[in-house]
Amino acid sequence: MQVLLIGGTGLLGSEGAKAMIARGDKVKALALPPVPQGAVLPPEMDIVFGNYMHMPDKELAGHLKGCEGLVFAAGVDERLEGPPPIYNMFEKYNITPLRRLLRIAKEQGVKHTVICGSYFSHFAKQWPDMELGRRHPYIQSRLDQEEMAFSFADTDFHVAILQIPYVFGAQPGRKPVWMFLVDIIRAMPFATFYPAGGSAMVTTRQVGHAMAEALHRSRGAKAWPLGCVNMTWQEMLGIFHKYMGYPKRRVVTISKGLFTLGAKARKARLKRRGLETGLDYDVLGELMTRNAYIDPAAGCEPLGLPREDMEKAIGESVTLCMDILKHQKSAVEMKGE
Question: What is the C-alpha separation between 295 and 212, in angstroms, rounded?
Fold first, then answer.
């Protein structure tokens, strides 16, 4: 299958390219420069540098001509900060350009599309009592992205969305998303204070494999909730401590109320700077203290994702964070395409 991959040099896109090429697909990537120093990209992948959001329809149609597959491994996540209403920023990067891509792809005869989404949309449907979309602009944007993307699906145009949870694994030369948590832990004296709860997790390689398999296996409109390992925050933080050099450091479980006080203080600081974030800190404690677990039978097993050593993947992420903080390695920021 000839595939156009948006974001093919990124953390997840590069793994997707490797998996698709190993499966026999031919991959052309549209990506923003620069390529992180030390990043391992498949030599068989054709890379075109440029911002797809700024390309006219005719240019995008030229890239999609002759393709049977489209993979969207770009956009922004909930960590984005911006002026209110922050929803507009998520719409700008995650919905509006994807709508245009899907329209042009369908016009050019593309048959199969895979979109990297978020597991928050899965839980918004699993936990309707929490009203996650109404309360959190980022989660609402992911729900809207799914609804928009699935509206294109029919018997000849298949749309799959990967509902991706916490991802671990490092790409040399690119800052891990976990820099913020490593910074938080380092700033706490003696122990790490964190609420109860936990999350589903996958490795970067597993996400790449999911892209390749979903591209070939999905029919119609299909959401794949991914979760190969479920882990409590205490278990995850214990691994963080190990690779940060604090193997005996304790994790102290704090109440939802205490976590919420800290979150509200951060929200107030952002507001003074004229900024919002994608998750509303006033009610974030309700979400953080849940066990956001996903049965591997929902997505990982039917897609045949390989088993991975999650502790090793977390260790790779944390070690790179520490090397960057100690100025032992340089890295570019994570970015949307």
Answer: 21
